[in-house]
Amino acid sequence: MHERTLNHTQETGNQTAAIAELPCSYSRVYELTLSRHEMELRRMEAADQMLNGLRQSEVPIKFGVTRTTASRWHRALSTKGLESLRERKATGRPSRLTIEQKMQIADLLKQDASDLGFSGSRWTATSLAKVIEARFGVRYSLDHVGRFMCKLGPHIHTTIVPGLKRVDTGTV
Predict the structure, then answer these.
(1) How is 73-127 classified by DSSP, letter by letter?
(2) Is the pTM of the predicted complex or chain greater than 0.90?
(3) pLDDT digit string (tens) for 45-87?
(4) 3-state class (DSSP) for residue 16
(5) Where are the strands (E) in 18-90, listed by range?
(6) What is the CA angle 6-80-82, rounded to 5?
(7) DSSP annotation of 15
(8) Is 134 within the bounds of a domain?
(9) Does 120 lie in the same domain as 80?
């Protein structure tokens, strides 16, 4: 899905050429941190296309969002109109890590965890949380670290829950 999102945003011009040239893990990190303006542009484009006949079921594929997000956009557009999809003031807490720090983490996850002194070669939420706290002075819950690891993509072989057996599918 990531490649579809990146290709779509390249076609529509919502990302700069410099970001499009980033290696896969960097562009994954960047994708997670779209600016509020870029998110609004994506919503507006999706709304325009929905008003011109694009089915709700096609929105996730075309715009690289979840079905739940497409449903929310469709419901907001249908009940409250186009203005309901405009950018609003951020209500959540800003990330405590910069984009550069997230890129460093993506690079770290390409290495074996044992290279940094952990037992076993696979990364766990616990081991990554310890590295994030040691390197950046930021303490995250294991749930948050696990979600962050998942967002970086399936190419990273990880065991998120300690003690949970991982079934290796042989895909990278």
Answers:
(1) HHHHHHHH-GGGGS-----SPPPSS-HHHHHHHHHHTTS-GGGGT-SSSSB-HHH
(2) no
(3) 999 999 999 999 999 999 989 999 999 999 999 999 999 999 8
(4) coil
(5) none
(6) 45
(7) S
(8) yes
(9) no
